[in-house]
TrEMBL record:
Bilayer-crossing regions: 21-43, 49-72, 77-96, 135-158, 165-181, 187-205, 235-257, 621-653
Keyword terms, alphabetized: Hydrolase, Membrane, Protease, Transmembrane, Transmembrane helix
UniProt cross-references to SUPFAM superfamilies, sorted A to Z: Cysteine proteinases
Entry's Gene Ontology molecular function annotations: peptidase activity
UniProt feature, compositional bias: Low complexity: 603-616
Alphabetized InterPro entries for the sequence: Bact_TGase-like, Papain-like_cys_pep_sf, TgpA_N, Transglutaminase-like
Native source species: Schumannella luteola
Protein's UniProt name: Transglutaminase-like putative cysteine protease
Biased composition (Pro residues): 572-582
Length: 778
């Protein structure tokens, strides 16, 4: 007894030992190296000094809490409460600095954003363009995860016997950073390698420390000077190994090439803006030109250079009916709309930086007019914050969208890069690029016919592209078909409308049809193309965009210059009279007209009406009622069946088990099976399953006279040398039915049902026996 009581006393003594400074410092340094690597996984997400401040603050606060809790031996709940209070006190100035009074004092608004950011910030990180900087409350997920990892991991490292398990929380932080990061690898392999190396170092160091402690306790003596010397050597060794691991990680970071695509969460998340949910702006092209809309002021702009255009949307998916933006699958070149928190990195783009201010007047729609290749957008006015939160951008297609749309009075400034346009000579030498666009569907045959006609004699793709554009501008005429004086021109850009445009004697349409036709024809040559809908400002009213300025053009992807904007729309000029469809009429000889055959008089060929009464159609009212009931009750019954299926499986398994026991080949097995069935039935009704109990002992625990008799009969059959007769086995099963009734007496209906579906007796019965019907003698 003395031995059993002494051990806990020693355990209690160990838990109250003070925290040795050198051990604590070494543990903290190793953990800081691990949490720094883990936090570095979030760097591609933020790439801002504010993240460094938030992460550093979280590590310092967490370290302080873990050390204080280790010194004063706080319980886990007290430590978690202190961590939560510290999160509220420091979270706003560190993770939501824009909502802290004087940059330090938390505000009610800041606390609300802080708490909501823990739950909502993770989802928002997946639907926003990276990096996010300190946008809104998106620093909260990283701050909270680093703080929790520091408190938990360092507490384990300082207080647990196997303190190396404290490396798990930093590893979780690293995984989170990579999972919520960009699709292109940013030294993820180097970070993982460094974390693994330091974790191994921590494991070796802690194991050696446990071994030294065990030896010291066994020897019962250890000089204080020797301990200090050993601790100093351990700290120096740990620092040296950390430096070596850091150098190794640096070499690995240089050797690992960044930019390798990887599967992360944002590649699988469903984006909040699906362009397929909105009507194509090209389908509303004529709406800008009729009912007086052509004179309405759509936008007011300033800072727009000469020849620069305003983009409404880029369309790259043609289905034979309409051209739209995006396809929603991985094969498309666009359709991925994400939020833009601060700015887009355009450091590698060639072109002229521009800044254009835009104020919305009569323009309406979810598509936000922009210019060039967007770098940043800055909304102003009373709704600036709301518009900024609802703005999404597809970088590949250059299309912006505002959920809920924009309206009169909304204003914003667009900073962008206006790409340079190649000259005609350069374009003639261009070759098709490798951009991915969805394959066009239902392309009319007239497209290929016109391409062959226009490109005859041209050998290079660039010259063929120029020939197609020149042919459309030469042969095409502009008519919107709205005014009575204009020649008819149907709206739309379906395959049938494009075929009509290209096969008519006079090619009549407007920018809607010519842009689609040019896009499809350029694809026939091999160039990836897309259609852009936007405004072309007029010199007649500078700074003002009218509805009549609506237009459409194409963008062609080349291997040399990327996406190049080209305008296939013909100049407005008088439209000649259409040539006659068939100018020469050929006279055909007349043939004698045969007289019509004599038709009998219907009055003399009437049939005698059938007077046989047809039976009435069966009344199907009851059938309709039954079908209606089945339509309603069917799904309900199916749902109830699914809910009850687990219980039905249990009942079926028990019935199968009973049947196998009852129909065993030998009478002895049937008697033994009857006893097993009784024992299982008693266990299902709540009687204890006594381990290693004999049949008699179990029967005594049940307390029924019939159970003791059943046990005696089973024992005699099993252990006696007499041959068991089949009739005796049958009597055993009849007695079992009476025992089942005795067991059910005194039970409520619910208790009896619960016994039927209880799993207690099925735990030791092999599933193989139920499926194959085999039993082994017990």
């Amino acid at each position: 007894m003395s031995t059993r009581t002494a051990a806990p006393a020693r355990g209690r003594t160990r838990t109250r030992e003070r925290l040795r400074p050198l051990f604590a410092v070494t543990t903290i340094l190793i953990f800081w190296a691990l949490i720094a690597i883990g936090a570095a996984g979030f760097w591609p997400v933020y790439r801002d000094l504010s993240f460094v401040v938030a992460a550093g603050g979280a590590v310092l606060v967490g370290t302080l809490l873990a050390v204080v809790a280790a010194v004063f031996r706080w319980r886990a709940w007290a430590l978690m409460l202190a961590a939560f209070l510290a999160f509220l006190a420091t979270g706003v100035p560190l993770a939501v600095p824009s909502q802290a009074a004087r940059g330090v004092v938390p505000t009610v608004e800041g606390l609300t954003s802080l708490v909501s950011g823990v739950a909502l910030g993770w989802r928002q990180l997946l639907t926003i363009t990276l990096p996010v900087g300190d946008y809104q409350a998106l620093l909260v997920p990283a701050f909270a995860s680093i703080l929790v990892a520091t408190v938990v991991g360092l507490s384990v490292g300082l207080r647990a016997r196997h303190g190396e398990l404290g490396a798990i929380p930093p590893a979780v932080v690293l995984v989170l950073g990579i999972a919520f990061g960009p699709e292109r690898a940013a030294f993820g392999g180097a970070l993982a390698g460094g974390a693994l190396a330091i974790t191994l170092i921590w494991c070796v160091w802690r194991r050696a420390a446990r071994r030294r402690e065990a030896v010291r306790r066994l020897l019962g003596s250890s000089a204080a000077a020797s301990e200090r010397s050993l601790g100093t050597r351990s700290l120096a060794a740990a620092l040296a190994i950390l430096l070596l691991a850091g150098a190794g990680s640096g070499v690995a970071a240089v050797q690992l090439a960044p930019g390798v695509p990887r599967a992360v969460l944002r590649t699988a998340v469903v984006q909040p803006v699906d362009p397929r949910d909105y009507a194509s702006p090209l389908a509303a092209f004529r709406g800008y030109l009729k009912d007086g809309a052509d004179e309405d002021t759509m936008l007011r702009v300033s800072g727009l250079g000469e020849g620069q255009r305003i983009r409404i949307a880029t369309l790259d998916a043609y289905d034979g009916v309409v051209y739209r933006s995006g396809t929603g699958n991985a094969d498309g070149g666009s359709g991925s709309f994400v939020r833009v928190p601060t700015s887009l990195d355009r450091s590698g783009d060639q072109g002229q930086p521009i800044s254009v201010s835009i104020q919305v007047a009569d323009y309406r729609g979810v598509w936000l007019p922009t210019v060039g290749d967007l770098t940043s957008v800055d909304f102003s006015g009373s709704d600036a914050e709301a518009l900024r939160g609802r703005f999404y951008y597809d970088r590949v297609s250059g299309t912006g969208a505002v959920l809920g749309g924009v309206g009169a009075g909304d204003s914003y400034r667009v900073d962008a890069i206006e790409p340079s346009t190649p000259t005609a000579v350069q374009l003639a030498a261009a070759t098709p690029g490798s951009a991915r666009v969805p394959a066009a569907k239902s392309v009319p045959d007239a497209v290929g016919t016109r391409v062959e006609e226009y490109t005859a004699g041209q050998s290079t793709p660039g010259r063929q592209l120029q020939a197609v554009l020149d042919g459309l501008r030469r042969d095409g005429y502009i008519s919107h078909g709205i005014e009575p004086t204009e020649p008819p021109s149907r709206s739309g850009h379906s395959a049938e409308r494009i075929s009509d445009l290209l096969t008519s004697p006079l090619m009549i349409g407007d920018a809607e049809q010519y842009a689609v036709a040019a896009s499809l024809m350029a694809r026939q040559i091999g160039f990836p193309t897309r259609v852009v809908v936007g405004f072309v400002p007029s010199d007649e009213h500078p700074g003002v965009i009218l509805g009549s300025d609506i237009s459409a053009w194409i963008e062609v992807n080349t291997a040399e210059y990327g996406w190049v904007s080209l305008d296939p729309v013909p100049e407005v000029r008088p439209i000649p009279e259409a040539p006659p469809q068939d100018p020469t009429q050929i006279s055909r000889p007349q043939t004698p007209v045969e007289p019509p055959p004599d038709e009998p008089d219907p009055r003399t060929t009437q049939k005698t009406p059938d007077t046989t009464q047809q039976p009435d159609a069966p009344d199907d009212a009851w059938l309709q009622v039954i079908l209606a009931v089945l339509r309603i009750a069917g799904p309900i019954a199916l749902l109830l069946g699914l809910l009850a299926s687990p219980f039905l499986v249990v009942v079926a398994a028990k019935a199968r088990r009973r049947r196998l026991r009852r129909r065993a080949r030998r009478p002895l097995d049937r008697i033994s099976g009857a006893w097993d069935e009784f024992r299982d039935a008693a266990i299902d009704r709540g009687f204890a399953d006594i381990p290693a109990a004999t049949r008699t002992e179990f029967a005594e625990s049940v307390g029924l006279a019939q159970s003791r008799t059943l046990a005696a009969v089973a024992d005699r059959a099993v252990f006696s040398s007499d041959v068991v007769e089949p009739a005796e086995a049958e009597r055993m099963w009849r007695a079992l039915r009476e025992l089942d009734n005795s067991l059910d007496r005194g039970l409520t209906r619910w208790q009896r049902i619960r016994a039927r579906i209880s799993l207690r007796s099925l735990g030791g019965y092999s599933v193989r026996r139920l499926l194959r019907g085999r039993r082994t003698r017990r």
